Amino acid sequence: MRIKIIPCRRFANNSLPKQLLKIASELWEVFKAYLSGDKEHLKEELADVVVACITTLKCQLGVRDNDIKALFNRVTEKNRARGYHN
Predict the structure, then answer these.
(1) For position 40, which CATH number holds?
(2) Which of 26, 42, 57, 73 is the most exposed place for a label (fewest CB within 10 A)?
């Protein structure tokens, strides 16, 4: 699977704490979508969380695409070692 997630440049100049609050806000939207019972809305809000996290990695933390790929690979290996993929 190969996807290109484009960061939201509108939030590129947010401080790290402000951007972390943006992620928290998006998580709240996920919870509200879940409570509504609308699975399509829930999927969209979950994707918004991913975009907010990618925005944080790229814009606030300066992580490059290849390094993001490496981060995801490390997390995958960590989760595999914990037995989460069984």
Answers:
(1) 1.10.287
(2) 73
